[in-house]
Design goal:
Number of helices: 1
Strand content: 5-15%
Largest sheet: 2 strands, antiparallel
CATH architecture of one domain: 2-Layer Sandwich
CATH topology of one domain: Erythroid Transcription Factor GATA-1, Chain A
Distance between the termini: 54 Å
Oligomer: single chain
Shape: elongated
Length: 70
Amino acid sequence: MSSEVTGSRVIRCPGCGGPSVYSTTNAYRPFCSARCKNNDFGAWASEGYSVAAEPDPEDPDAPPGNTLPH
């Protein structure tokens, strides 16, 4: 990104770690480019991001045998 934009905040791109202008002039914000944005979307779409969680014993849709001891 060029430094021609005045008054805009420059942040670190979550994809590559490079500078990214966080402004309405940057169509890819918070990413620095279409490449970083698409790489992130690809990881999300292929379930590359996940959050570990314990199964909910109250969930009626949970598969049997996955309950936690009380």
